[in-house]
Design a protein that fits this description.
The chain has 349 residues and is α+β, with helices and mostly antiparallel strands. It is 35% helix and 23% strand. Strand 10 and strand 11 form a beta hairpin.
């Protein structure tokens, strides 16, 4: 019986030659964006990868390791899922405009748009409203396209002009337009009413008995809303519902938070916040997230007490995390993120 030949290793000359144009595009985009941040008066920082806590979101999973001290004691550390905790400590320390091309790590993630180790471009401005960071993100995307000379992004049959005026769409508006759901009617006192959303979403998504309000929200978003975002032009989806605030502050309307995401061709590129500076509220949210993580996955991550202290000490600020590999993929004309990284995940051929 004949066997299929084993795939050649990623470092074979032919396979490397096939993706080298994408890698050169990555280098060009990196240079262009560093120049833009320098023009804007940002300082490039380089923060630590091993952290006391990798982040405290229910569905994010981090690799871990143990460090051995000279006296033989062992200390658990986590590979960061984002540089956010460290960057906000720098804001509390006095930095005002910072950015980082950060290597980050996420367990349980692999696919055309996901890698277990990838690059996140994250930046912060102190004392600016979050619409300023929205504007930054649109400019950064356009600069990436300009660096490669591409005129239109394309992915899985969808296209987007990175130079066109972006679509600004509230999450509530998107749910009404694409799913026929009055989302804000399912939020009371800053919390999601699971029964109200289940009733509104009946027949539109599959609903399980143990689905929370956030589960239902995510299902509608993924199945009915995201496929329509970033079609023809960039979409900035903003005013996320308060139960999905994460690390963002609540807006003047207590049903929504100062959080936004940016999409192109249905691909999520960036997630930004008007940053929360209430340490007690951040602790409450983290505790709630970790309780849910333990219920679902049987584990929880510790709280970074230094980070919580920094939240209360940092100035008003806004920031955003952008998936750099995804941006390069679109700007280079690639079809998978592993085509635009110099070395793919260890152990892959």
């Amino acid at each position: 019986m004949s066997r299929e030949p084993a795939p050649s290793p990623w470092w074979s000359p032919q396979r490397h030659a096939d993706v080298r144009p994408f890698l050169l595009a990555r280098a060009a985009i990196t240079r262009a964006l560093r120049a833009w941040f320098d023009e804007q008066g940002f300082t490039e920082v380089e923060t630590g990868i091993l952290q006391v806590s990798p982040g405290n979101e229910t569905h994010l999973h981090a690799p871990r390791t143990d460090l051995t001290a000279p006296d033989g004691t062992r200390h658990r550390r986590y590979f960061r899922t984002s540089p956010e905790f460290a960057c906000k400590k720098l804001l509390a320390a006095g930095e005002r405009r910072i950015f980082e091309f950060a290597r980050v790590f996420r367990d349980r993630e692999r696919g055309d748009l996901h890698l277990p180790e990838f690059t996140m471009l994250e930046w912060y401005r102190a004392e600016v409203p979050y619409d300023a960071i929205m504007a930054d993100t649109v400019v950064v995307i356009a600069h990436a396209a300009q660096a490669t000379g591409i005129r239109r992004f394309a992915f899985r049959g969808r296209t987007a002009d990175p130079f066109a005026e972006p679509e600004l769409l509230t999450v509530a508006g998107a749910f009404a337009r694409h799913a026929g759901i009055d989302l804000l009617a399912t939020i009371r006192d800053g919390a999601g009413d699971r029964g109200a959303l289940a009733q509104a979403a009946a027949g539109k998504i599959r609903i399980s008995d143990d689905d929370t309000w956030s589960d239902l929200f995510s299902k509608v978003l993924v199945e009915h809303v995201e496929p329509h975002l970033g079609q023809g032009r960039i979409t900035v989806l903003h005013e996320y519902p308060a139960p999905e605030a994460a690390l963002a502050r609540v807006a003047a309307d207590p049903r929504v938070a100062e959080r936004f995401e940016v999409y192109a061709c249905g691909v999520e590129l960036a997630n930004g916040f008007g940053e929360l500076t209430d340490a007690a509220e951040q602790r409450r949210r983290f505790a709630q997230e970790m309780a849910e993580k333990e219920r679902r996955y049987g584990e929880r991550y510790p709280l970074d007490e230094d980070f919580l202290a920094a939240v209360g000490a940092m100035p008003q600020a806004s920031g955003v995390a952008l998936g750099f590999d995804r941006l390069v993929m679109l700007a280079a004309g690639a079809t998978r993120v592993d085509q635009v990284v110099w070395t793919p995940p260890a152990g892959e051929r």
